Amino acid sequence: MSIKKSILIRVRLVFLLVCLFACAIVYKVVHIQFLNGDKWKSISKERRIFYKPVHATRGNILSDNESILATSLPFYRVAFDPTVAKAEVFNSGVDSLALLLSRFYGEKSEDYYRRKIKNARHSGRRYIRLHSRQINYQDKKMMSRWPIFREGKNRGGVIFEKVEKRFKPFGILAERTIGFINEDKNGAGLEYSFNGNLSGTDGEALFERIAGGSKPIYDGTEVKPQHGYDIKTTLDINLQDVAENALYKALEKTNAEYGTVILMEVKTGEIKALANLGKTKGGYIEDYNYAVGSQGRTEPGSTFKLASMMALFEHSPEVNLTDTIDTGDGRYRIKNTIMTDAKINGYGKLTVQQVFEKSSNIGVAKLMEKYFGNEQQAYVEYLNKFGLNSTLGFQMEGEARPYMKDPQDKNWYGTTLTSMSIGYELKLSPLQTLAFYNAVANNGVKIQPIIVKEIRKVDEVVQSFETRVLNEKICSDETLKKLKIMLEGVVAEGTAKNILSSDYKIAGKTGTARKVKEGRYVREYSTSFAGYFPADNPKYSCIVIIDSPRGVNVYGGDVAAPVFKELADKAYARDLAMHKPMQARVVPNKDSMPVANAGSFDDLKMIYNKLGISTQTANAEEDWVKVSAKRRSLEFKANPVLQGKVPDVVGMTLRDALFILGNQHLDVDVQGIGKSVKKQSMAPGTDINEDKKITIILG
């Protein structure tokens, strides 16, 4: 056979095989398309259509006066189904819509949006994302009036997909206490602890998978979400601000590692301020809740001497404050260790009261040896009776468990009794120590601290939290009398004389505990001051911890006590009920009437009508107004909010100001404390610049 004939046969054979393969493909296509078409369409639809959760709006976190500490602000993604609108509506409006989109987003041309929308309609695409940028509620209202969009979702095809962002109007104030929660439901603070109340219940809706994402299908089967409840805390934003500022200054001054401050109402147990600041490369931030958590659970040092003296007076009521004890030259051998006092060469002979006032380690140790040396179990049982070995059941997650030794333990040594009596070989969190001091201020009633007072659904109280009594009488009245005298003496004559006030009495105790590193005590200290004020009629109890301060003066009286004093001064100054009666008082002007400077027309109109105050309206068409006082009435004047212009928010509440400024795409920095805006950094009516940052000052 010739080579030519052989090649020809092979070519024909390959051609025949290709034809057979092509026929097989055509047959398979016809078989799938026509014979099994319904089956595969059904499977495709099942996989394309799915149910997706619709997230509920998260509840607000409020302060004690209902200022917003954390809230969720609505934003929207704009999508479009160009196949919905009728031909005449679409054709007459598409050019104007493209022009408006181009002007609004400012990145693509009018022609780009026209082609994108027309091509999608021509190809039957039922969902296109017009832009990745999210818009606010005010923009949404504006877009809803645009051509085609004004027909709505069902006849115009516009889709506004709601997205919510968590916003804290007061910035980093109480940041760790407010806390956070992430997508994995992990977090910290109130956001995490009360997530079940704040999060609400998600709804459900039908969605269709499309190229680039999914689009909702509104077929009437969707389940509406149940929005989260608000929680009202006990925090006072003014006192919180003072606590954080005073703590920050002390930490910077001493270059300390971290610090915490807790301020609590004596009778109610309501926490009014809770500040935690830890050292980072960039300064001090709220990175951990040292007041409550295990990282803040340390050996308390001399603040624990109050518990030891309480045990002493309960066990041996015959001990008087005037009884004396010789503390010697400042060095005292206990077994194989040497205990020292802060004063070189010692204090010599001291009364029991002076032992406490001067915080003599040796004096306390000798008292414990004398009265509990043969009854060490009794000493620990007193501490347990005071509740110092138990958690408080605090409302926030992560409360540390106290560590308290027992004589039956293997690690109870011959020196443990005296070490524990001065605040070593045991561990408490700052909140647990404060609850004990608060019980002394509260005439022996130990109560559970609380930080959340109410759970609300709009204005309806769903659940309220009252103070729970943990111990109706922590010790006898005679013991309390002795303890209060000693606590006042610490400030009047002892280690905290530097915070003595001529306006009100402070009672408290300093603490300076050496820290342990690699199993050994080193010359680094955890300093503290715990107490209450006014001492003669206690309103607040407070504890301050400054960990590892550096410098010459590193004792509790030098470092922690001044922070206590600054916070106490501010709390005393703003609470007139604590002040001494004055000779005369100012008589209010009965002819004066309340005037709100600015706000929503509907809200202000309703409020003044309820109060029976006469009002006049210059322009009832405006949503936002300014208020000015006439002789016997108030007049509302228009305060328009114009797109692209800086609005006038002076006189508005913080909530209204944030709403308006946020809708103008402005980045808001809130400064100061107060209920209304006193100043704004950008002049009203001016064009919004590229920076888009505005500062508002409350007053």
Automatic annotation (TrEMBL):
Gene3D superfamilies associated with the record: 3.30.10.20, 3.30.450.330, DD-peptidase/beta-lactamase superfamily, Penicillin-binding protein 2a (Domain 2)
UniProt protein name: Penicillin-binding protein
PANTHER family for this protein: PEPTIDOGLYCAN D,D-TRANSPEPTIDASE, PEPTIDOGLYCAN D,D-TRANSPEPTIDASE FTSI
Record localization: Membrane
Stretches assigned to the PASTA domain: 637-699
Domain of life of the native organism: Bacteria
Alphabetized UniProt keyword annotations: Carboxypeptidase, Hydrolase, Membrane, Protease
Coiled-coil residue spans: none
Pfam families: PASTA (PF03793), PBP_dimer (PF03717), Transpeptidase (PF00905)
Organism of provenance: Pontibacter anaerobius
First-listed, main subcellular location of the protein, grouped into a coarse class: membrane
InterPro entries recorded: Beta-lactam/transpept, Beta-lactam/transpept-like, PASTA_dom, PBP_dimer, PBP_dimer_sf, PCN-bd_Tpept
